[in-house]
Amino acid sequence: MNDYISQAEEALLHTYNRYQIVLEKGEGVYLYDTEGKRYLDFAAGIAVCSLGYGHSKFTDCLKNQIDTLTHTSNLFYSKPVAKAAQSLKKATQMDRVFFTNSGTEAIEGALKAARKYAYTKGSGKYEFIAMNHSFHGRSMGAVSVTGNEHYRTPFEPLIAGVKFAEFNDIESVKAQITDKTCAIIMEPVQGEGGIYPADQAFLKQVRELCDVHDILLIFDEIQCGMGRTGSLFAWQGYGVKPDIMAMAKAIGNGVPVGAFAMTEQVAEYSLVPGDHGTTYGGNPLVCAAVDTVLQIVEEERILERVQEVSAYLEEKLDNLVKTNEAVTERRGMGLMQGLVLNKPVGDVIKKAMEQGLIVISASGNVLRLVPPLVIEKKHVDEMIEKLNEALGDSFPCGACITQ
Ligand SMILES: *Cc1c(COP(=O)(O)O)cnc(C)c1O
């Protein structure tokens, strides 16, 4: 195991502090390292591997597509792109989709689409309002709208005209609106920034502001989308529809694919041939994956399963807040949950790994739980047991009853 770690470290640019584990294979909701140690996976490769590992319908589809055709460029049509575009259009309730290779590129495309819309309309608008604590990716455009100075400052000057408002504070958003505001961008449930779900009223009011001022509403559903919150896309649960949305992570269940989508009203004034492109984006391999993931989500009633198991998970986590001194708060929606800890989250994560549980962190000393969407109640029980061990110092059981 150490051999692989030193080989990787010797050649890779040091941009990640990796956990000292070399993962070798996955099966269902478990991962195995090169020593054969088994881990219950509550990270899913950062909210990506929603169907778990080795889902045979999914892997068969990839194998078939690899044997048939993996890449064509966007100068041609392919069967998978036709199917995936139709199924994603239906799933998102949008009218037009564009496939990208990552979440960052989906955001980049969404920002360009919004700027182009304003440009075509001749409105002179170009400003974006983004949220504090947001995360939208690492390209110069995506990082420009990311509400974390630590990620932005070393790369300035970034794109012009970005303002930040407080998430879930409508007055703060209003205060940033000018006659130059072109779009407002936010995650319906903030992920990286610490797992903060939007308030229903806040999203509704933002939508109203956008309608009044001809501002486009962009939702970043990269982490909270594709069933994670119990709705296919988080906005569908809130009942607040964006004009443009960005997706990635779970839409490919591990193959690198993202997408941005928009309504016809936006598309009419937005990107046309020559404005935007990608060589790999939407190739037959990734499109076969997207189409199959959507089929499986429907066939296996993943949304209902998420709703059921997440209610159980929330109950268990709330109990942990009551019974374990180290856990001060739970926030989240569906299978996207965060626990605020009062001891260093990094230490807890390492201890959890020793116990055979993979969890990750989010900003603000938050332990982030984004398991595969196919987990069952028994996996929740196993996770809680291991997490309790990792947290240590739980109250004796008598104390929890009197609380
Ligand atoms: C992960 C993430 C991104 C960036 O996606 P990449 O595929 O890493 O480029 C953007 N927005 C949100 C909300 C994310 O969670």
Question: Would you tell me the structural class of the helices and strands?
Answer: alpha/beta
Sheet-strand content, in percent, reads 15-25%
Compute the number of helices.
16
Q: What's the CATH superfamily of the domain at 57-299, by name?
A: Type I PLP-dependent aspartate aminotransferase-like (Major domain)
Mean pLDDT: 96
The proportion of residues forming helix, as a percent range, comes to 40-55%
What's the story with the biggest beta sheet?
A: 7 strands, mixed
Number of strands: 17
Name the bound molecules.
pyridoxal-5'-phosphate
Low-confidence stretches: 395-403
Task: Write the CATH architecture name of the domain at 57-299.
Answer: 3-Layer(aba) Sandwich
Alpha-carbon distance between the two ends: 45 Å
Instruction: Write out the strand line-up for the largest beta sheet, numbering strands in chain order.
Output: 4-12-11-10-7-5-6
What attributes does this structure have?
403 residues; alpha/beta; Aspartate Aminotransferase, domain 2; 42% helix; 18% strand; disordered C terminus; binds pyridoxal-5'-phosphate
